[in-house]
Amino acid sequence: MYAIIVGCGKIGSRLAQLLSSNKNNVVVLDRDLTKFKEVDKSFDGLTIGGDGTDQDVLKKAGIDKADVFIATTEDDNTNLMACQIAKQVFNVSRVIARVNDPKREPLFKELKIDAIVCPTTIAAAHLRDAVVYPNLTAILTVNCGNIEISEIRVQGSASGKALKDINLPKESTIAAIIRDGKTLIPSGDTIIHEGDIAVVVNLAAISDEVRNILSR
Question: Phi and psi (nearest 5°) for 33?
Fold first, then answer.
């Protein structure tokens, strides 16, 4: 995969390292050349100084062959403009944006950015869960907060039941069970035990209902 990342701050530099370590071709752009110091020395991709909204700079970065384009700067206007250019001018098949101000998420949705990640929204939701739901560990929030992937410690009435006998909402599924340090891929006949960790994927709107069923 050929990936272009605009913004080499803490998020962009870490993302570049993760993608590069998975054998992807990665190019990182930033106007501030000192930001490239954030990139780990083991990073084997390219770093280019320049404006991620400048079409000539994007061409230099190889945007014509990019499979994915990610804007991760701390400025929402820059991220929005860069993503628009990547999507509308260069027809990059997958465009992803970091959104810093949660109030601006709807604007990014309207422009049909393929994926939107708001660190503020995600962090706040995870901290809330840590306070309110001690038996839950939030793993990931995707699709602008519409879908959640969580680890829920099983306790209460759900213990000892087969998954097919637990009345979970249809908009949720237990993707895996972690028991004694081992991961099981369950079927409907799998019995869940007290203390099992259920890896659950569900719509965010029904998260409370799912938690109540599995941990109370």
Answer: -65, -25
